[in-house]
User: What shape does this take?
Amino acid sequence: MRTFIHRPAVLAATTAAALSLTLTACGDGSAKGDGAAESASVSKSVGDGAEKQDTAAGSKAGTGTSGTSTSGSGSSGTSTSGSGTSGSTGSATQAGSNKKPSAKTPACTVDDVRISAAKQDGVPTTHITLTATNVSGQDCTLLQYPLIAFSDVPQTAKDVPSVAKSKPGAPIVLSAGAPAYAAVRINQGGVDEKNHAVSSFYVNLFAADGPAEGSKTVTAPKGGIAVNDAVAKTGYWTYELRNGADDF
Assistant: This one.
């Protein structure tokens, strides 16, 4: 009888334990299921958000692409502009390289220049400066040095010799209105020199093949000048007088 009395208790306890385990299992499953559902919901929400973000990014990207395309068109325009510039430069360079050499600047004639004379500083006056100004309205080359004749008859007068050290390194090309200069020694400043008074003199220019035709009469500086033909010398035409090279 004791046995029968205890068995139901054990059975009941066993049943209760099993039921408790079952309920616990069911409860855990439900929690896990709810957690999974919740996780799935969150994942879905995140996924939806990511999708929305991706979609928004895609839209922005699409807009950006469109903008880039527009910008690309602008860049293309810039590129075209750049190419045009490059092309222009190339064309200019090509044109420059294919351009035929221009004719040499013609030699200045006596009619192309206005020549004046001025005393240089110092007493007595031993040097004058000739200034030749291009009045032709176009470029011309002033060749070598002035052909000076301190005589009433230039055709028979001896030209004043030049000083080699005053020769410039390149031809003197004068633009319209531009001047060039030449230093001229007229005497040594000695009281016993054989000087003669000069109120005007003749200047001729060089052509490409030698002395040019004709000459120009130049008025001497105010008060006239005293010239010693034996020591008179002239410098070459230069853009400006240079100390040393024109000191003779």
Confidence is low (pLDDT under 50) at residues 1-102. The first helix runs from residue 2 to 98. The CA atoms of residues 57 and 63 lie 9 Å apart.
